[in-house]
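Q: Predict the assembly, please.
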Amino acid sequence: MISRKRDSLENAARGNSLGRDAWRRLKANRAAMASLVLLGLITLAVVVGPWLSPFNYYSQDYDAIWTAPSWASGHFFGTDAVGRDLFVRTLNGGRISLMVGIVTTFVSLIIGVTYGATSGYLGGRTDNLMMRIVDILYSLPFMFFVILLVVFFGRNLLLLFAAIGAVSWLDMARIVRGQTLSIKQQPYIEAARMAGAGTPGIIARHIVPNLLGLVVVYVTLTIPQVILFESFLSYLGLGVQPPATSWGALINDGTSEMSVAPWLLIIPSIFLAVTLFCFNFIGDGLRDALDPKDR
Amino acid sequence: MMAYIVKRLLGAIPTIFILLTLTFALVHLAPGSPLDGDRPMTPEVRANLEAKYHMNEPLIQQYRRYLLNIAHLDFGTSFQYKNTSVNSLIAAGFPVSLTLGAAALALALALGIPLGMLAAVHQNHTADYGAMGLSLAGISVPNFVLGPLMVLVFAVYNDWLPAGGLDGWQSYVMPVLALAAMYVAYVTRLMRASTIEVLRSNYIRTARAKGLSGFRVFFVHVLPAALLPVVSFLGPAAAGILTGSVVVEQIFGIPGLGRFFVTGALNRDYTLVLGITLFYGIIIIGFNLLVDVIYGWLDPRVTY
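A: Predicted assembly structure:
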């Protein structure tokens, strides 16, 4: 009896951490949870799927041109104009699309958080100058710049990562700076300073960890933007080069053959749209979960 | 007000300067030369061509010439369309792109603003979920998916609309829809969020308390304040729509500036691609400037 009472007291005293509260709210959001599951399935299929299929993404089979999707032939999603299996190509394309999305977002995350936290923490004239630079970069037509870059320097995946990453950190930097401005007023930052911590230490150890919630939300919203951006370039024929493929490149192929083989357009389109939809839903759900005042 | 406009105009100068410098640096850092064609040329021919394009001068002099040319709005000669100036290509393509973009922006506002207001007024009810679901779909279905799918349904399977080309108003229907969809979605979300925020503010409560009609409160007090975020979104939206038209013109075979840009990019037509980038860059910077001025004029809290 006594021990049970103490138990419940301890529970009450422990309370709920911010993270647990957020997780509870996110779990209550059915759309976000469904998206999370669906996205997990797509990721799994994209990673594992190509190994399970008897076909590969580059072999051509002139006996099986424009086969409609069917169980019997083994081409679940049909084949394209040179007899390549669309199932494997879609999953392989998904690997590239998701990889570009994640790696590039990581690049933009590192630049954006470092830049924004530094600018916000230092404040004053440095902050003014750093944000002025972001403002200027903001008003440049970046999509055109990336295309210029790709045209002048040739088309390779690494350049694509770097170029899109270098473009998409601006939002992150602005948001992180805003949050840093309010975090640096907190007593624990003052305490750290009193204890003799240096500026880089305070930024890395005390500011950045407290930005995480916000950063997680913007990461989930940046990934779909980057995937979209890569698909856009690949659609124009400026992204991933054949025989490698991505969802954008597949949609481009599908567009030119849609009157004879509509599945070539429709299936990759569904994969791209569903993935973007899931990321957006999860991002919205996370934002609501971490910042319930906006609901 | 005048002082503010002048200040903003001066503020745009470094931006344009950086735009020009970055593009110049890109061109000169790129490996190879635009003269490396499929046919080998004798050294004399090459030297003559280099002299013609001023490629034999020191870099700093080329940079000065480049800035001077741009200042005179002279973007040079296209490599791909021989003997055609980039200026004349821009003059041919831009009106088409402008029509397309303006129609898409107008549609985005005409649909997005009422949808967002509707969602905000019925927050957390059926109308809200409907509008939000629609706008999430709009954000997740890119124009290069929506465009071809519309062609498939409305031009290939049913012969209702032309699949491409530019022939009467009908050929604008699908491109404008494809281009506008994503911006309808963004405007709806923005408008919903800002309307909800304004509806909760104290001055709206005051307006209600002193007995104004719901209609008057909404259209006189809520709407102007709620529109402000949409106004500041116009700048990025215009930039996005211009970029989006690159892909949409490609899908529907519309002879606009975006299509020149893509063919130029695929054929390594340096001057054309560069010219269009600069042209669009300057337009976007100018449009942002205009939006800022309008914002300052609409929002009484902005001081000059």
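Residues 77 and 87 of chain A are 5 Å apart (CA to CA). The two ends of chain A are 42 Å apart (CA to CA).
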